[in-house]
From TrEMBL:
The lineage of its organism: Bacteria, Bacillati, Bacillota, Clostridia, Lachnospirales. Gene3D superfamilies: Spore Coat Polysaccharide Biosynthesis Protein SpsA, Chain A. Residues 4-147 form the Glycosyltransferase 2-like domain. It comes from the Bacteria. SUPFAM superfamilies: Nucleotide-diphospho-sugar transferases. This is Glycosyltransferase.
């Protein structure tokens, strides 16, 4: 089996159907689909179970389980342990494949020999807008996440050696892929748009927490990838920006963003004198 597609969900009755449909409608059929539910109290599992016959008729292996977990990464680790595909990808509730031909375009006539992970572009959307973003080059990972996890296929037997560190609530994916990169695992970037990635509902508080986890992860690797003075300044400025974002009008935030850029430039210039 070529691919294991994994969806983790909890009380996702409003979004799970779109995710499942994007999987079921793939033109490339050499995959299995695993849904790991966190013991939802709404109609999520009713919707999931209603698809069993359609996957069976399409001759696609379809497995689902609902049980309590300690968080999204705990659920993702559980699902990974069940995967049988050569490659795995995580397409959680509220996300979906960009088109019905994603798997076919990525895997048909491509074996990616010598690579441990393959990542592409993604379509980022909220309630109002959609934008396609190309992921950044993998060598930027010591400074930031180059892609979203909904756009990366990883060799399952390789990823089981890493998994998600469940001490992180928001950035365990960054931690896992950073560790892979630091260990010399090979990543291949492709131009294909892989997923629709939702940013709806992201709060200022969660963004600050994600920044704190990102800083912690980068410090963990600082012996191998030293942290520059510039990056430390950017951390402080970004945290101040995120703290103010939900409390200050957008017109004022535009002025502050410009002031931040000028401030960083002057500090860096002074530091090099």
């Amino acid at each position: 089996m070529k691919v294991s597609i994994i969806t983790v969900c909890y009380n996702a009755e409003k979004t799970i159907q779109e995710t499942i449909e994007s999987v079921l409608n793939q033109t490339y059929k050499d995959f299995e689909y695993i849904i790991q539910d966190g013991s939802s109290s709404d109609n999520t599992m009713k919707i999931v179970e209603e698809y069993a016959e359609r996957f069976r008729n399409a001759r696609i292996k379809y497995r689902y389980e609902s049980e309590p977990d300690t968080g999204i990464y705990n659920a993702m680790n559980k699902a990974t342990s069940k995967a049988n595909g050569e490659w795995c990808i995580y397409m959680n509730a509220d996300d979906s494949f960009y088109s019905n031909r994603v798997l076919q375009e990525v895997f048909e006539d491509n074996d990616y020999e010598g690579y441990d992970a393959v990542f592409g572009a993604y379509c980022r959307h909220d309630e109002k807008n959609k934008y396609v973003f190309q992921s950044e080059a993998i060598d930027i990972i010591p400074r930031k996440m180059p892609f979203v996890h909904q756009t990366i296929f990883v060799r399952t037997n390789v990823f089981r050696n890493y998994g998600y560190d469940e001490q992180y609530r928001l950035c365990a994916d960054y931690d896992a892929f950073f560790k892979m990169y630091a260990d010399g695992r090979r990543f291949r970037q492709i131009p294909n748009v892989v997923s629709n990635y939702s940013v709806s509902g992201a709060s200022g508080e969660s963004n600050i927490d994600a920044l704190e986890e990102t800083i912690q992860i980068q410090k963990k690797h600082s012996d191998q990838y030293p942290i520059s003075f510039e990056r430390r300044i950017r951390w402080k400025m970004k945290k101040l920006y995120l703290m103010a974002k939900n409390q200050i009008p957008e017109s004022t935030m535009i002025i502050l963003r410009k002031a931040k850029a000028v401030f960083i430039t002057r500090i860096l210039k002074k530091d090099t004198m």
